[in-house]
Structure formats: C-alpha cells, structure tokens
Amino acid sequence: MNAPGRRSAAPIDLRSVQRWRKLFILVGLFALLAWTLMVKAEPRLEHAVEHLGLIAIMLCIIGRAWCSLYIGGRKKQEIVTSGPYSLCRNPLYVFSFIGAFGAGAMSGSLSVGLVFVLACWIVFRTVVGREERYLSETFGETYDAYRRRTPRFMPNPRLWRDEAELCIRPTFFVRTIQDGLFFLLAVPLFELLEAAQQFGWFGAVLQLP
Question: Which residues on adjacent β-strands are paired with residue 208?
C-alpha cells in the first residue's frame, strides 16, 4: 500500500548505505576467514554441526526468497507490513543471520557459527539504524507507527497478517535467490581449509566445540 503522510525525500542515500553494507560484509568475511584458519573443530561434533549448518543455509535461502515475494524492490516506495514483515521489520536480515550461522557452522564448530552471527549482527545493526532513519524521514508517521508495533529483529508470531494476493517481481525474486546462494560457498570453502590443515599448510592453534 502507498503510505499516507509521506514526507519529502530524506537526505540519506539508501544506495550508499547498502554499498557500505556490502563492503563491511566483505571486509568482515575476510577477517573471519583469517581467524578460522587458526581454529579446529571438536571431532566428535564436527559432522553434526556441519549438517546443522547446511540446514541453516537452506532455511536462509528459502526464507529470503519468501521475504522477496512481499518486498519486491518496494522498500523505497512504500512500507510493507504483511507476511514476514508483519512479524518483524527486517526479516531479510533475520534470515541472513541464520545463513551466517550456517556458513560458520560449515567449519564444524558451533562457536565459529555463533561468531559469524555476531559479526553479521554488528554490521546489520549499523546499517539498519541508517535505513530506519531514511524510512522515518521519508514516510513519517506511517513508518513510525509500524516501528512502534513491530520488533526490529525478533519475530512475534502474534502479529502475523497477510495479503489476499501479491504482485510478484520475478527479477527481484531471482536476484534474492542468487544472493542467498552466496552462503553455499561456505561448503567448498571450509572443505578446502580443512584439507589445507590436513596437508600441513598451516596449523590450528585453537580447538572449539
């Protein structure tokens, strides 16, 4: 729906914010990978954690695709408040947290998975603050009321509401699927790191569950 009470365009460049988000993610990813080179998973838990990580990654991909059916590139045109966006204000990021855990868990360590989630949360928390400022300045009371009644990250099932029908944008849906597939790169990446450790190219100095 088009929001009433819309204000003049905000001075915040949302595209710039999103570019910075991608840059922070890239830098953080390299830093995390450098850290995981020194970590060895607990052998008794390794395979179970890897399976859990793969499930989390698939949930992330499916969940992000589900969100894209509702948001459909309309973030800057209107406030979407139905479907997953009725449960929390940033469900795409919530599923990204799940994907970050899954990517880290492919190392075989729950601890690495949790560190990946923490790093992802730090990045997105900063970005979300800027996005919320943009939306508040652009849509005014419509967004502020939505923000007051809807949690930022923690979904509240009691708030669920849906639409009778949706207008789908296939290009955005496909792009979201492609972005989600990025998390699957953790599978071959951590296999390569494990093989490199076994070949003695570098040694782990820390064993974590």
Answer: 41
CA 73, CA 70: separation in Å to the nearest integer?
Answer: 9
pLDDT, tens only, 125-158: 888 888 898 889 989 999 999 999 999 999 999 9
d(CA 129, CA 125): 6
Has this prediction a pTM greater than 0.90? no
Distance CA 131, CA 187 (A): 31
User: pLDDT tens, 90-119?
Assistant: 999 999 999 999 988 988 889 889 988 998
Asked if 68 contacts 172 with a C-beta cutoff of 8 angstroms, the reply is yes
* Measured distance CA(72)–CA(108) in Å, rounded: 35
Three-state secondary structure string covering the chain: CCCCCCCCCCCCCHHHHHHHHHHHHHHHHHHHHHHHCCEEECCCCHHHHHHHHHHHHHHHHHHHHHHHHHHCCCCCCCCCCCCHHHHCCCHHHHHHHHHHHHHHHCCCCHHHHHHHHHHHHHHHHHHHHHHHHHHHHHHCHHHHHHHHHCCCCCCCHHHCCCCCCCCCCHHHHHHHHHHHHHHHHHHHHHHHHHHHHHCCCCCCCEEEC
Question: What is the CATH number assigned to the segment(s) 41-199?
Answer: 1.20.120
Q: At what angle do helices 46-71 and 110-139 cross, to 10 degrees?
A: 10
